């Protein structure tokens, strides 16, 4: 499904150049639960951004279902992000002057060839995440944990092939964090490919494909059959 071939990402130039990713190569099979672990500055979020089509590789190639995403133009990248990828990011990426239900449904407005989920299903997911009562609230009226659950709901109802999660439980208490992890596991069992960045060694064990990063490189890669 996904193949990285010697992908590097450089920022700046000359003495100010930073190498965020350094010749990274790996493959991800459809339906895997991938966890990417590493300390701050290890390159794991940059890797997630390349996977999501937000950051273009400086060198190397990124193939999705045989297509080289690194060569896509802006229109193709936008279509790829909207139809194939859902994001759960650390800072929620909610629009503050839109209410909760509008924020959740934003990606659906730009769908061209994909079936839009029924409102009953959207409400069902909201209810599971404990945010149904906040349908018409604005993000600034919610706690950080509630905003995170709105972002997760938006990702789920988008019904994409891949969910990219950057520290998805970072703003949640233990109970809600565990609920989100169980939800991601259920989505994975239903066939979704989950790629999750975390600094938590225990959370990393959830994945059946674990990638450890340091200084922009993959230093370990493990597979389990559990």
Give short descriptive properties of this protein.
single chain; 226 residues; alpha/beta; Rossmann fold; six-stranded mixed beta sheet; four-stranded antiparallel beta sheet; 31% helix
How would you characterize the overall build of this protein?
This protein is an alpha/beta fold. It has one domain: P-loop containing nucleotide triphosphate hydrolases (Rossmann fold, 3-Layer(aba) Sandwich), CATH 3.40.50. It is 31% helix and 27% strand. It has helices at 44-51, 74-84, 100-105, 119-128, 144-157, 174-189, 201-204, and strands at residues 2-11, 18-28, 33-37, 59-64, 67-68, 85-88, 162-166, 193-198, 209-214, 217-223. Helix 4 packs antiparallel against helix 5. The longest helix is centred in the last third of the chain and has 16 residues, at 174-189. The two termini are 21 Å apart. The model has no long low-confidence stretch (mean pLDDT 89). Residues 2-224 form the ABC transporter domain.
Give a short summary of the structure.
A 6-stranded mixed beta sheet has the order 6-7-8-3-9-10, sandwiched between helices. Strands 2-1-4-5 form a 4-stranded antiparallel beta sheet, covered by helices on one side. The longest helix is centred in the C-terminal third of the chain and has 16 residues, at 174-189.
């Amino acid at each position: 499904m996904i193949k990285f071939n010697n992908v590097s990402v450089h920022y700046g130039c000359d003495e100010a150049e930073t190498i965020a990713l350094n010749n990274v190569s790996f493959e991800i099979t459809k339906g895997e639960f991938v966890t990417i672990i590493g300390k701050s500055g290890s390159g794991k979020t940059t890797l997630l951004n390349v996977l999501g089509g937000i950051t273009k590789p400086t060198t190397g190639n990124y193939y999705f279902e045989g297509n080289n995403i690194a060569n896509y133009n802006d229109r193709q990248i936008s279509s790829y992000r909207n139809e194939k990828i859902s994001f759960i990011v650390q800072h929620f990426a909610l629009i503050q002057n839109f209410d909760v239900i509008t924020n959740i449904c934003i990606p659906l407005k730009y769908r061209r060839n994909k079936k839009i989920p029924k409102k009953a299903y959207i409400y069902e997911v909201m209810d599971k995440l404990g945010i149904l009562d906040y349908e018409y609230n604005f993000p600034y009226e919610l706690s950080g944990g509630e905003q995170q659950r709105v972002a997760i709901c938006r990702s789920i109802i988008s019904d994409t092939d891949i969910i990219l999660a950057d520290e998805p439980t970072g703003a949640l208490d233990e109970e809600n964090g565990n609920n989100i992890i169980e939800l991601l596991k259920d989505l994975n069992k239903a066939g979704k490919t989950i790629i999750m960045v975390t600094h938590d060694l225990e959370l990393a064990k959830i994945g059946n494909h674990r990638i450890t990063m340091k200084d922009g490189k993959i230093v370990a890669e493990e597979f389990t059959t559990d």
